[in-house]
Amino acid sequence: MTPKTTLPSQNSNERLPVAGLLALAMTGFICIMTETLPAGLLPEIDAGLHISPALAGQMVTAYAVGSLSAAIPLTLATQRWRRRKVLLLAIIGFVVFNSITAFSAHYGATLLARYGAGAAAGLAWALLAGYARRMVTRAQQGRALAIAMVGTPIALSLGVPAGTWLGAAVGWRLAFWIMSGLTILLIAWVLAKVPDFPGAAHHERLPFRHVLDMPGVRSVLGVVMAWMLAHNVLYTYIVPFVTPAGLAGQADRILLLFGVAALVGIWLTSRTVDHALRLSVLLSLAIFVVVAGAFVIGSASPAVIMIGVTIWGLTFGGAATLLQTALADAAGDGADVALSMNVVAWNSAIAGGGLLGGALLDICGAASLPWAVTGLAAAGFLIAWQARSHGFPPGHRLEHGSGS
């Protein structure tokens, strides 16, 4: 039985709990910064720990493995816990494990700390979207999630270069201590501004298989994999991709341009996610396919690269908001479990994009990357197009089911 739904009138214009939502955004910012900080500090880290650059790079790998392996089990294990308690547990994990990373002089202990930080991130990412949705009315959920997700592109476009500069200036250990300090401030912020919610009652706990079998969940996860694989094949190898256009020395500016465009994309998505979620997903993927096709033809042109990266950023900025909203809507009361699956799918796509892009780069050269992106993005479009009944239904999202 589908409950009768009245579309929002003034509901959606009620005041959003911006301070609390920004605390969630800061949590996402800490997640991304903790994940990517070692990548910009490899020379300092390998000198400090007396290891090779390849071993230093495994600090990023250990974090990703932690997120992949822990997101679903930790989410299932904490379903009955009060929500703010779980959120604080994840955030405190960052304090503990970043502090160990900053203090450790032993490579093995450092890797274990990075694994622990990744596990904390996996739990945090599984919580954030569902938490933001519970803080507001159904009519405000799309805009609330857009605010809660804004920390990610900020970290990628501004935070990572700033962290890299800071680590080079004051040392990589102090950079991790600063991350711990910021996270302690975040704990106080969460306690002051983020409301608490009860966990699931014993009879409300939904098993993993039940949530995975819900109509629309697999379709959304399929789009997540295809879209994020396409994105990461190109994003991970952006330097070799832009080199034929003579832009290798401007990779930092190109990534900044991408990040700024992604912020605009988040704002645009906040205006469309509720009443045109399906159209937003299809349009974003269709434009991404066109941009990838332009890269196939004009990869040697600086103008094509710069314009294409800007449009690519616009289409990508709202991806997290759109896909997590669709997934949570499809899963209903199983949203947290479904979103833990999203963490696994998203991180698998990051790893898979690196592997696939690296193989293509070695075997076929940088010119092959946009071909792969075109095919993967087109596959994502087709999955979303076919998920009309469940996953990405047309019309206002409040017309479909009761949500979570």
TrEMBL record:
First-listed, main subcellular location of the protein, grouped into a coarse class: membrane
Membrane disposition: Multi-pass membrane protein
Record keyword Transmembrane present: yes
Family annotation (SUPFAM superfamilies): MFS general substrate transporter
Pfam families: MFS_1
Presence of the UniProt keyword Membrane in the record: yes
Keywords: Cell membrane, Membrane, Transmembrane, Transmembrane helix
Limits of the Major facilitator superfamily (MFS) profile domain: 20-392
Subcellular location: Cell membrane
GO cellular component, one term: plasma membrane
Top-level taxonomic group: Bacteria
Transmembrane segment boundaries: 21-42, 54-74, 86-106, 112-132, 144-168, 174-194, 215-238, 250-269, 276-297, 303-323, 344-363, 369-387
Entries under InterPro entries matching the protein: MFS (IPR011701), MFS_dom (IPR020846), MFS_Efflux_Transporters (IPR050189), MFS_trans_sf (IPR036259)
Annotated GO MF terms: transmembrane transporter activity
Protein name: MFS transporter
Species in which this protein is naturally found: Acetobacter estunensis
